[in-house]
Amino acid sequence: DVKVTQSSRYLVKRTGEKVFLECVQDMDHENMFWYRQDPGLGLRLIYFSYDVKMKEKGDIPEGYSVSREKKERFSLILESASTNQTSMYLCASRPVAGGSYNEQFFGPGTRLTVL
Amino acid sequence: GENVEQHPSTLSVQEGDSAVIKCTYSDSASNYFPWYKQELGKGPQLIIDIRSNVGEKKDQRIAVTLNKTAKHFSLHITETQPEDSAVYFCAASPYRYKLTFGKGTLLTVNP
């Protein structure tokens, strides 16, 4: 069973704080993703990582950075949290092998509130 | 880039009825169309997908149809049950890894 875990289900931070969201997958998937989910806006891609130390900006990267030092772990970093970054953050992973189209497996999400 | 429109945003049906959710996409290069179901407190989970060389795919009570000419695809759920209540997302993929999601449909199945 594929498992994607996220370090926290709920997180409350103050404006200006540096925030780390951690994601770990246990299926040796090459690709990992960070999405943001807001009511009425669906899922929007923040950053994507092809493989270890590889990253690519998604559709809404402003205010975020990422780190992938190990294959199983992908971190999302908010350098200076702002109230408009209050949201649900979803991590996903995807294998490269097995064809061109592969299911993305999602974690349970981290609900971040920035006060 | 790709743009995916999803309708309706909310859908309420009686148990046993059918439910249909429709999506349109803009990028003719998109060739993979998955549907995800998100239950309360959980991450989205793939329920069915279709590739551009196929017009229809069925898995028990769930079916997806694709019209590439019109650039639209639909999810059909027959004999709905209360456990089908969830948020459903369609998505389109113009490249191997990238998914562009619709805004979601909240389906409520009333017993």
Describe this structure in words.
The complex is a heterodimer of chains A (115) and B (111). With 115 residues, chain A is an all-beta fold. Chain A is 0% helix and 51% strand. Chain A has strands at residues 4-6, 10-13, 19-25, 31-38, 42-49, 56-57, 65-70, 73-78, 87-94, 105-106, 110-114. The model of chain A has no long low-confidence stretch (mean pLDDT 93). Chain B has strands at residues 4-7, 10-14, 19-25, 32-38, 45-51, 56-59, 62-67, 72-77, 86-92, 100-101, 105-110. In chain B, strands 2, 4, 5, 9, 10 and 11 form a six-stranded mixed β-sheet that branches. Chain B has a five-stranded antiparallel β-sheet with strand order 1-3-8-7-6, with no helix packed on it. The interface between A and B is medium-sized, with 22 and 24 residues.
Topology diagram in text:
The complex is a heterodimer of chains A (115) and B (111).
Chain A (H helix, E strand, L loop, with lengths): L3 E3 L3 E4 L5 E7 L5 E8 L3 E8 L6 E2 L7 E6 L2 E6 L8 E8 L10 E2 L3 E5 L1
Parallel strand pairs in A: 2-11
Antiparallel strand pairs in A: 1-3, 3-8, 4-5, 4-9, 5-6, 7-8, 9-10, 9-11
Chain B lengths: L3 E4 L2 E5 L4 E7 L6 E7 L6 E7 L4 E4 L2 E6 L4 E6 L8 E7 L7 E2 L3 E6 L1
Parallel strand pairs in B: 2-11
Antiparallel strand pairs in B: 1-3, 3-8, 4-5, 4-9, 6-7, 7-8, 9-10, 9-11
Distance between the termini of chain B: 41 Å
Low-confidence stretches of chain A: none
Low-pLDDT regions of chain B: none
**Whole-angstrom Rg of chain B:** 13 Å
* Major sheet summary line of chain A: 7 strands, mixed
Count of helical regions of chain A: 0
**Radius of gyration of chain A over all CA atoms, rounded:** 13 Å
The chain-level structural class of chain A is mainly beta
Percentage beta strand of chain A: over 45%
Q: What form of chain B results from the Cα inertia axes?
A: globular
Order of helices and strands of chain B: EEEEEEEEEEE
Amount of helix of chain B: under 10%
Span between N and C termini of chain A?
37 Å
What is the ordering of alpha helices and beta strands of chain A?
A: EEEEEEEEEEE
Largest binding interface between chains: A-B, 22 and 24 residues
Bin the strand percentage of chain B.
over 45%
Overall helicity of chain A: under 10%
